[in-house]
Design a protein that fits this description.
This protein is mainly beta and about 650 residues long. The chain contains one helix and 33 strands. The strands form three sheets. It has a 28-stranded antiparallel barrel.
């Protein structure tokens, strides 16, 4: 049984320290001396955290519960000074020393009673800071929090060391950074550890004529991630980039941008390497007329699969009026991929015309229009039964349907990672897979570890489609009309893709229409949006309503509420989906010493095949008077994924007495 009386035992030093004497500080000056030291702050602090968790999963259901009490009294000292002179060596460090008592109980046994020495610190040491070869060392060991979205907050116990040096003078200045990072992630549905050793070197300089610059960068990261209940994931990444920008002629009317980039990942489940070169030439013939020419070529090796690509393009831009811009672009390229399961050759070329128009309507409105049409032809030659798609990029947002590009995917082959490949996300915890006929949707799960709005890379295997030739036609139109400085706005989007030829391929024709109304007035923002996607595979309709208020209630109170609802239907699958979400934030400032923060949210996502609910509540009181401060907080999180239910309660208190 955890006894609350122990909290008073270790909180007593802080209460006694509240009546202590203020520490002495010696002010720094600019004189030389063998060693100087002055105190920037001195304080006593006690943290106490109580956590209780319960998880129910499986059929028949099994329950796991745990509780934990942690108390950490520390003394913190801020020190700054120099050795001989601050231009020789200057330091600023803030160590915290104390004890860490932890008591935990688990329903399956494994009780823990532990006491250990605690040390946390922040510090910077600068060497020869006025010299071109100035160097520094930074170190930190601390606790922070990371939000993947409103419903997913993780505690991060981290230790980081960073060393920087280089030479900033001469024709080729260079900077070098060495870093070590250890992170322990907890208070999340899936705790884990992350460790990384990194080396980076960077050099950038201006050309002698002052009309261009160049930059060279090298990065090496050796990273290991271990998630509880999963195998560890190790990657060794080496990257090199070279950029060069040149300007020529009168008024710098000719500009050339060049890039060479290499990235390699080894010692992982799938070794990859990519070498890419890019050139772009821009000519400003007149202030309103320009042309551009580009080339991108590269080779990539991904496991046993090799790909070579060459893409070239040319375009012209003309600004007939200040508010009307026209772009005409031509492109063409080749791509070849080889793997043990098959190979493919693609030759493509096309043209696109884009028009953009914006105009202010007197003092009461503004209109913007954009339209484009494109025609592309593709000749595809394929061999084998399977093609492997790697690093297909997607942006994960709840208000968008993310369909993988290829049909007839093997769902068991899907692998979702962050863009660096160092974090592997877990199906049904971080994302869900939903089948829509021949196409597959991946969807971010709120409360998981995929940050809202982030980019992910997706690997998967799909059936190889036969050889064929076809022409695609694309149309895109966007408009928006705003009245009275955003008080009322109408907007819409229309895009379509159709094909001529390719009858033996599974090509997805699309007719996507979206219309909406939104309004912003003082503290209120609201809107309604309807989207219908007509397609020969995976069509859907989506209706969305969103409301938000942000306003002050008196001098010391602020309130924010965001509510959204959406309904979607997928006719081919006879599937309907309903999503409700609400987030509230309230801040009450009683006076300059006392504030109270409350925030809470709930989200419900249900269909005929699954039902997910997640809710979070967090509140915190902050009180400070003179040199004494107190923080008291409570957080609650519940997640219900049908056969899995988890509840977590966290209560904490921090008392701090500062002497300087």
């Amino acid at each position: 049984m955890i006894r609350p009386g122990r909290i008073l035992r270790w909180g007593l030093p802080v209460l006694l320290g509240a009546v202590g004497r203020e520490g002495y500080a010696q002010e720094a000056d600019d004189q030389t001396r063998p060693f100087s030291l002055f105190f920037t702050k001195v304080y006593l602090q006690t943290d106490a955290v109580y956590e209780r968790e319960r998880q129910t999963s499986g059929q028949p259901p099994s329950t796991f519960s745990s509780e934990r009490l942690q108390i950490q009294p520390v003394v913190g000292v801020g020190m700054a000074g120099s050795v001989y002179h601050e231009n020789l060596l200057k330091y600023d460090v803030n160590p915290e020393l104390g004890m860490d008592w932890e008591q935990s109980r688990h329903s399956n046994g494994g009780d823990l009673n532990d006491a250990r020495f605690l040390q946390r610190y922040h510090g910077t040491i600068e060497f020869l800071r006025q010299k071109p070869y100035a160097s520094s060392i930074y170190g930190a060991k601390d606790v922070s929090y990371r939000d993947y979205d409103f419903f997913s907050r993780s505690r991060i116990d981290s230790e980081r060391w960073v060393g920087r040096t280089g030479y900033s003078a001469g024709p080729l200045p260079v900077s070098v950074t060495v870093q070590h990072l250890d992170e322990i992630e907890s208070e999340t549905p899936r705790p884990g550890n992350f460790s990384e050793d990194a080396l980076s070197a960077d050099s950038r300089f201006l050309h002698r004529d002052g009309k261009g610059s160049a930059q060279f960068t090298y990065n090496r990261e050796d990273a290991t991630r271990e998630d509880v209940g999963m195998l560890s994931h190790h990657t060794l990444h080496n990257g090199f980039s070279a950029f060069d920008n040149e300007a020529f002629g009168d008024r710098d009317w000719i500009r050339l941008n060049s890039m060479l980039n290499y990235n390699g990942v080894s010692e992982s489940t799938l070794d990859t390497s990519t070498l890419q070169m890019q050139e772009r030439l821009t000519l400003d013939h007149t202030p309103r007329f320009s042309s551009s020419y580009s080339y991108v070529g590269g080779v990539a090796s991904e496991g046993l699969r090799d790909t070579t690509t060459h893409v070239g393009g040319a375009g012209v831009r003309h600004q007939l009026y200040e508010n009307l811009t026209s772009d005409l672009g031509f492109r063409g390229g080749t791509s070849r991929s080889d793997s043990p399961d098959g190979s493919s050759d693609v030759v493509s070329y096309g043209v696109t015309l884009d028009e953009q128009y914006t105009r202010r309507l007197s003092t009461w409105g503004r209109v913007s229009l954009e339209g484009s049409v494109g025609v592309d032809h593709e000749d595809r030659t394929s061999e084998g039964m399977t093609m492997n798609i790697l690093n297909e990029p997607h942006v994960m947002n709840e208000d968008q349907v993310v369909l993988l590009a290829s049909p007839m995917i093997d769902p068991t082959s899907i692998r979702v990672t962050d863009m660096s490949g160092s974090t592997i996300y877990v199906q049904d915890l971080d994302y869900s897979v939903i089948q829509h006929g021949a196409y597959t949707e991946i969807r971010r799960i709120p409360g998981g570890r995929i940050p809202k709005g982030s980019s992910v890379a997706v690997d998967y295997s799909a059936n190889q489609q036969p050889s064929s030739s076809f022409t695609s036609y694309s149309d895109n139109v966007r408009f928006r009309i705003d009245f009275w400085n955003g008080l009322l706005g109408f907007y819409g989007r229309w895009s379509s893709v159709s094909y001529d030829g390719g009858e033996n391929l599974m090509l997805r024709t699309i007719d996507d229409k979206t219309v909406g109304i939104d309004s912003s007035w003082r503290w209120l923002r609201a809107g309604v949006e309807y989207q219908t996607v007509e397609a020969n595979s995976a069509p859907y309709n989506r209706f969305r309503i969103f409301e938000g208020v942000q306003f002050q209630i008196g001098d010391g109170t602020s309130l924010g509420v965001d509510v959204d609802q959406s309904w979607a239907r997928y006719p081919d699958d006879n599937l309907s989906e309903t999503v409700y979400g609400a987030i509230l934030r309230l801040r009450q400032r009683f006076n300059s010493q006392f504030t109270w923060d409350i925030e809470g949210g709930v989200r419900k996502d249900e269909t005929s095949t699954y039902n997910r609910q997640i809710a979070t509540t967090r509140t915190e009181l902050n009180w400070s008077v003179a040199k004494l401060s107190v923080k008291v907080g409570y957080a609650f999180n519940t997640q219900d994924y049908g056969t899995e239910l988890s509840d977590r309660h966290i209560a904490y208190v921090r008392i701090r007495r500062t002497f300087r």
